[in-house]
Design goal:
By secondary structure, the chain is of the alpha/beta class. The protein has helices at residues 2-21, 24-50, 177-189, 193-197, 226-232, 260-279, 302-312, 329-335, 350-360; strands at 54-60, 64-66, 70-79, 85-92, 98-100, 106-111, 115-125, 129-141, 148-150, 159-166, 212-214, 236-238, 247-252, 283-290, 293-299, 341-345, 366-370, 381-385, 391-393.
Length: 395
Amino acid sequence: MASKIFMYLLAVFLGVMFALYLSAAVGWTFVYVFVCAPIFSFLVTLWLHKRKSVSLRLDVNRTMLYKKETVTLRITAANKSFFPVPAVKVFLSVPEGLEPESPAKSFVMSIPPRSESTAEIVYSAKVWGCCTVGAKAAELHDFLDFFRFKMPLGENAELLREIKVFPDIPEMAGDAPLLRSAAENAKLADDSEETRETDNVNLFAGMPGYTHREYVEGDPVRRINWKLSSKRDKYMVRLDDEIESIQQNIVLDSRGGSDVYENERAVEGLLAAALGLLKCGFESTVYCRFGGVWESFSVTEPADVSVLQTRLADFRFAEEHERCGRLPAEELSEKGSGAGVLLFTSMFDKSLTAEISSAEEQGIFTAVISADSVSVGSAFQIWRLNEDYSAELIS
């Protein structure tokens, strides 16, 4: 601003010098124009502002996308007056999970009389979760850029749209140590005599301890052994009822850490475990907290994992000021299924440890799968979830 005022005063000074030493008529004309220009510029811009002649609207070409896909934000400025609009400067919001193609955090549009101007910003999805794109503020500038008027953007003084990015479903090998451990815990959680007799069966080698036959139309999809089917290149169905009672409870911690990538790893690790267990013949129940309420999702076939993936695009970790439980102890106790829990977290701290200890008193034993690089908690079992979604037992 100071440099603009200096250049303006310099132009006036040169006009005076031209009038005094070269041509009075031409020189003083320039001086009068320079002196009146800021007044005219101010009055026109003030009139546009008071009459609300300039309005902004926003549009996006999509609101849900997968990672690496793009979304285009369009901001249109409309001028309904017969004066041209010198400049509208729009300040963009900074979405955490989206990366703009251009690093600019603002842009300027000039609008002819009774017309519109549109600017497009393209974002690429980098991280799972809910993001907001749009304008957080806008200013109307005069012709000389000496005066600025803040423009209203709506009821909440902002013009934003929410974009949801789906989490990925990473591949977790069927013989991964985490899945092996979860399967053994699930088997031991079953108190029936038949299960105890099959404790030594290797469930990760095509399920040889169970009777199978080829799938026929009308068979329940939940009985398909996906791992064995992929090996034989045809659908194979379990014939025994015992496997149906073997389930695993999987929980997503309601609180997240400050690292968005560790938060994402916890979410995607949960999806990988649910699908991995299913391919090995184990159904699961997944618990996530939405809007302050724990919701359960039954995973009995691959389509259920896709449904859960879609639902998790809308998941938000609780804010720091929110009071909420991080483990659905009551829900698990009511179902009588609290023998074993896989808890995925990105903030393994003393607070979570206290809840885990309290749950153990109710017979709920928790294996923690932590994406937190600085975890300080303790539990029945602790697994470190690596960046490649492999898990290693650390205690």
